[in-house]
UniProtKB/TrEMBL annotation:
<dbReference type="InterPro" id="IPR039421">
    <property type="entry name" value="Type_1_exporter"/>
</dbReference>
<dbReference type="InterPro" id="IPR011527">
    <property type="entry name" value="ABC1_TM_dom"/>
</dbReference>
<dbReference type="InterPro" id="IPR027417">
    <property type="entry name" value="P-loop_NTPase"/>
</dbReference>
<keyword id="KW-1003">Cell membrane</keyword>
<dbReference type="InterPro" id="IPR003439">
    <property type="entry name" value="ABC_transporter-like_ATP-bd"/>
</dbReference>
<feature type="domain" description="ABC transmembrane type-1">
    <location>
        <begin position="51"/>
        <end position="378"/>
    </location>
</feature>
<keyword id="KW-0812">Transmembrane</keyword>
<dbReference type="GO" id="GO:0005524">
    <property type="term" value="F:ATP binding"/>
</dbReference>
<keyword id="KW-0813">Transport</keyword>
<dbReference type="GO" id="GO:0140359">
    <property type="term" value="F:ABC-type transporter activity"/>
</dbReference>
<dbReference type="InterPro" id="IPR003593">
    <property type="entry name" value="AAA+_ATPase"/>
</dbReference>
<keyword id="KW-0067">ATP-binding</keyword>
<dbReference type="GO" id="GO:0034040">
    <property type="term" value="F:ATPase-coupled lipid transmembrane transporter activity"/>
</dbReference>
<protein>
    <submittedName>
        <fullName>ABC-type multidrug transport system fused ATPase/permease subunit</fullName>
    </submittedName>
</protein>
<keyword id="KW-1133">Transmembrane helix</keyword>
<dbReference type="InterPro" id="IPR017871">
    <property type="entry name" value="ABC_transporter-like_CS"/>
</dbReference>
<dbReference type="GO" id="GO:0005886">
    <property type="term" value="C:plasma membrane"/>
</dbReference>
Amino acid sequence: MGFFSKVKEHHRNYLFRPPKPERSRAGASDWPLYWRFIREYAWPKRWSLMICVAMVAINSTSVYLMSFYSRIVVDNILVIKTANTSQAPVERRIWEPDRNKFTVQRPTVGMGKKMDQGIIASHRPPGAGRRLFNIALAYMLTQITLNYLARFSTRQQIIVSQGITEKLREDMHRKVLDLSMSYHQTMSPGRLLSRILSDVDSVRGEMMGFFMSATHCVAMITVGTTVLLYEDWRMCLIAVAITPIYAWMYRRKRPIIRHLNQEQRHTNSCLYGLVSQKIDGMKAIQAYAREKGEVLNFHRISACFMRDALLTQRISAALGREAGILTSLSSCAIFLYGGKLVLDGEMSLGRMMFLHSTTMTLFQPVLEFTQLSFVLQRLRIALLRVTGVLDRPLEIADAPDAVPFPTPLRKGVEVHNVSFAYPAPSSEKETEDDAVTIEDSAAKDLTDRVIKDVSFFVPAGTWLCIMGPSGSGKTTLLHLLSRLYEPSYGEVLVDGVNLRKVQLLSLRRAVGIVPQEAQIFSGSMRDNICYGRPNATNEQIMDAAKAAQLHDFILEMKVQYETLIGQKGTSLSGGQRQRLSLARALLTNPELLILDDCTSALDANTEQKIQETLAKILVGKTAIMVSMRVSMAMRCHKICVIDEGRVAEFGTHDELLKLNGFYARLYHQQTE
């Protein structure tokens, strides 16, 4: 941190903005990251990108052509040349009587008079006016052509940049959908939005800015250096000698700019996470009158971002001022040198103006290189955050020898010595790629695990009811059975086949899941019911709704099954959302049905009807459900009681009553 001693650091450790640990990248090169992005996203657009580069190069180097027009006007049309030195004043001999001798009197000429005598306007050639008009016409046609090329280049840049953005966002969205629930458990939706929207947009802007600026600088430096070497190599040496000073100025500021860019991207991600979290919890914010407190939290993080942005701009402006002073001194030296050559008759005025303009134009891209480095740093930070998601290994994926889900089930489902621990939240140990692997969770101590050495067997065609106190790991166990999470230890077997060896697509089609918190999407009632089976017929959709005791309610709505519901089903009650989620699962006719306390928000009468319906439609099907209702447990073939992540009781209704344990106490509470 020694190079940050001159930077005025400010407090960043606010609520909802955890500090970002530095990740060492000593000896690591960033160029493989850039080449990977170019290869995967820019190279498919190479022809359009090359056209943009060519148009930018032509527009950039046109400044030399304009200076050349001026040289022609001065030297060939206005014909301003250096004076003939033979016309200099003649020395005079004067007799001095006092000294009794002749003295030589040399004429004294001031600098202004020398400049006046240094050049003369000689006779202009015939047709000078016509030539001047032709030059003016050529100048106008050049400007019109360059304007058209600039517009064409801008249009192509938009097409290329938006194409790259679309491809990158699609890849990000596809990867986020493939990542397991363990990742989504540690990464807030707001931070994922920051990756997909803000960081991808930053990559697009910085990438196109870098390509176009680099093309501009390289083209101007190449053409300008060639012109100077051809016209006057001494002025070229003056321009080249200043370049190492620019490089030293940039390297001195580079570590600070990189650090500040990292902090800005991290703060921006925290802002997305804060806004997403508060929008989801809007009811609680308004219910407890916490509006002012949340405004203060947002202001603190926003102010943190603003301070880092201002500090970055201040350092960038300081570097620009230093480079500008150096450029001005160099310009003065070149002007004086060129003026001396004109006075000595070694160079025409038009050529001197052309070389001075070329040299000054050559300094501009060198100065832009200092700003281009900042663009490259911002691109690096955004790419690291994007590739952190794209490169994250899939914890749940098809094995090379994966087989379809065994349909129909013949043996059943077996859980063998399964243990599981959730990964640590990324807010505590976030890195540039937010990587938290399943091996990290597997290495946790036994006391940190939610599920601990659980084993049981559910024969095909039977029902298992899982019960237990709150926080005992019931829902987590269902997530492992449906392979939304991977066990840290142990295995889940379906007809003797490890669930890791089952194809994910066939598994999702054969297993119906009804979560405790119903997931409702914006759209119609029909769209939500047939979400897992889009090609279902109207009769199948209505049969599933009837089985979930939802059909009569839908018929009372304005346009029945085509009625639009709000985001997350805000226009529905909790019980209606649970019944809709149950209808969605029943429509897929699953081989294995997993129910996570899906009747907890229903009244006793509706729950009784759903239980009776399930008893009819699930005949011969395998079902594993979490429920704290004894009435539901009594309908199941086996009951499993989970306590502190372990199997505390397992057996039938009568067997567990004899144990006089948790189930017996729950039975007496609900029946007496």
